[in-house]
Amino acid sequence: MRTIKVVMAFCLLGFSANAQNKDSAMFKRIADDIFTNSKAYDNLRFLCKQVGPRLSGSPQAEKSVKETFRMMKELGADTVYLQECMVPHWVRGAKESALLVDDKGTTFSLNICALGNSVGTGKKGLKAEVIEVRSFAELDALGEKGVKGKIVFYNFPMNPTNVETFRSYGEAGQFRGRGPSMAAKYGAVGAMVRSLASNIDDYPHTGTTTYNDSFPKIPAIAVSTRHAEYVSAELKKKKGLQMYFRTECEMLPDVKSHNVIGEIRGTEFPNEVITVGGHLDSWDLAEGAHDDGAGCVQSMEIIRVYKKLGIKPKRTIRVVMFMNEENGLRGGRKYAEVATAEKNKKFIFALESDAGGFTPRAFGFTAEEPVLNKLRNWVPLFKPYGVYEFSAGGGGADIGPLRPLGTTLAGLRPDSQRYFDHHHAANDTFEMVSKRELELGAINMVLLLYVVDQYGL
Amino acid sequence: MRTIKVVMAFCLLGFSANAQNKDSAMFKRIADDIFTNSKAYDNLRFLCKQVGPRLSGSPQAEKSVKETFRMMKELGADTVYLQECMVPHWVRGAKESALLVDDKGTTFSLNICALGNSVGTGKKGLKAEVIEVRSFAELDALGEKGVKGKIVFYNFPMNPTNVETFRSYGEAGQFRGRGPSMAAKYGAVGAMVRSLASNIDDYPHTGTTTYNDSFPKIPAIAVSTRHAEYVSAELKKKKGLQMYFRTECEMLPDVKSHNVIGEIRGTEFPNEVITVGGHLDSWDLAEGAHDDGAGCVQSMEIIRVYKKLGIKPKRTIRVVMFMNEENGLRGGRKYAEVATAEKNKKFIFALESDAGGFTPRAFGFTAEEPVLNKLRNWVPLFKPYGVYEFSAGGGGADIGPLRPLGTTLAGLRPDSQRYFDHHHAANDTFEMVSKRELELGAINMVLLLYVVDQYGL
């Protein structure tokens, strides 16, 4: 009954049941081969353990460029090349530390890290009274009188009641992003943000803060969720608590880096380009396994499986390792800039995986309604592989700049429950990735690229 | 458009849009409270870390009875009581070991463990030539001539191409279950089975073997997947390889144990019983976090959240911690036996969670077609909580014996990709469970029980 409905839906929309069966068989061939022969997990191990943390501008970031260039060659890409871009070069510097200090001089050491792109305190560090706020409204109410000369502690937990954790991340993220400058506006000398983590543990989670040039740039740190709770409890018990913290991070001049691009040339419409990628850079504290080594190695998998199964794409498939998503997005912008200049090419579709190597559940699309509706006809074929939904809205930071070219954007949406336990923290390690979950994500990505390539949009 | 369709479906089937909105609001209240105040994760930590491995007949199993009795009292159950049952008492005994020995006397130590319910070799151990087979057909082809006096090594990997890992477990499981006796039939003196694991690592995975009384009971062990690959490779290189292994496990006389039952009494139909549970016992090698501490603590959550939100069930809710699922199923059988004798009660529905504390994806039902169709009308309300499918077939080992009473059976179906990395092995630990995934499972279980209680079947 259900099958009949599916077949009818396909017929009505111009797909024949025969095509459906053929595609279903091809889906199975692709999935079986990835589950059996994928290099994604081994490549991820290499990126995490042999290259390691790879913040833009670091030697490891350069090593990751070289190594993914090699990987795509070995996987059998027709061509692999580099695309130069300048990237910010922020460095964390010497070991960071923070102490909570009460009026008797008793100290308690806090698990903290500097926020990305933030200024440091310098060697001497910074000591001041710490005050807690839970919203910008509270900050505004305190005003200059309550804030000046102090360290503002933003203690806004990620809302546990959103099933989709990215939503809670979006809500809480404003304090990391704008918080330091909003505090500086009222004369604060430092800012500390509760880590954007959905669990209670001891890892501080870094991530970019964005200074507003109208206000002084003040040192900014993140504190582990457990210690955020601790500081908050202490503040309720004791008056005039002070904090000392020291960070020696700094922003150095931009340096040259690269996106890495591997291509399989299209046989029928070589000038129509389908882009797929993840970002190569990671935070300096983490192996960048889920964020976003996973997306990189999943994206490369199409080269391996197409060569292995002898699938020749009609359109050109470009696998892109984007540089600098974390603290500048320069790679994504450069890719779109070059694409815009390639007047003879049409960038019809781009897919990004940058939400972790977890079990896939859906794809999100930024697309015109008729395109999305056309894509949705394929959902029944994806269900056996765990993807039940093609939803409106989605893509990825690196491919976002392609949208003005009319490119349809897609983002893999894996299950999000564990993502923010690891995101931007030292426990984003290879061991936290399940081989099968990673591969199932890669499978669905290749399947989506397959139908887009075969049938166009 | 989609909303209209959903509403229409509800109206056609006798549900009003109003009821749907009311239920949707209640779903949100339940989910929010579990994500915010659940005790499931803390209770699981207690079971794993303060009680630990709890094989039937062990002191820890008895401790788990006492502690879950306390937990359900504390959560606010109207009554909590024990249901006596006799359970097998298999003990692993002294430390197990195994060596691969070549003709030069070079030895290689293998990661092994005795299979549950198996006989041991005794202190002296067992030494014999080892031969590998990949199927029962291969074993039959070798016959007595090829097998007699040897150790049979069943090296059948779990098929990686099944998206649903339980399917591969089912296919590979026959070698652990029947393999030793099938080998003994041809005169083998011992059996070694490749661990039922979907990854390659160093943990041996135990689990029950079932002897056929027609043949001698021979000692049986599982070997880690990595060492299964190693032994296989060595067998290809060297002739006449021998193995030595020693296990001192034994089956002792049955002992008394208990199911633990917590009830919330129904207000309208107290004699209609809705059962929900997991199993309290675990293998002795593991903390039993995913298998099945998770199912136990998820099941208890309905008591907490109903009391907290003041929800009074129409029907009686029985939360059951089943004893002895792993190597006897005596708890499940006893529960059904007692239920059969309770002539004044109707056991309308039973739900089990015994597939790990992973992110939920579906429920599986053993139900008559009209019942399943009725249940399926609720699927749209579950989608926001990650459950997209109510499928035919499912339940759980412990609730299975209720089926002859006409009970509709349901099983939570979490994502299965990681389950067999941990199943029955020492790495089935608390740390491998995500708080949010565990809670999301509990949420969906309570939601299902809620609609069944409110609307009946």
List keywords for this structure.
homodimer; 457 residues; Aminopeptidase; Glucose Oxidase, domain 1; 8-stranded mixed sheet; elongated; Peptidase_M28 (chains A, B)
CATH topology name of the largest domain in chain A = Aminopeptidase
* Helical stretch tally of chain A: 13
Shape of chain A: elongated
Please state the second-level CATH architecture of the largest domain in chain A: 3-Layer(aba) Sandwich
| Biggest interface pair, counts | A-B, 26 and 26 residues
Describe this protein's structure.
2 copies of one chain form a homodimer. Chain A folds into 2 domains: 291 residues, Aminopeptidase (3-Layer(aba) Sandwich); 156 residues, Glucose Oxidase, domain 1 (3-Layer(bba) Sandwich), CATH 3.50.30.30. The first copy, chain A, starts with a helix and ends with a helix. In chain A, the strands form 2 sheets. An 8-stranded mixed β-sheet of chain A has the order 1-10-12-11-13-16-14-15, with helices on both faces. An 8-stranded mixed β-sheet of chain A has the order 3-2-9-5-6-7-8-4. With 457 residues, the first copy, chain A, is of the alpha/beta class. Chain A has 13 helices and 16 strands. Helix content of chain A is 39%, strand content 24%.
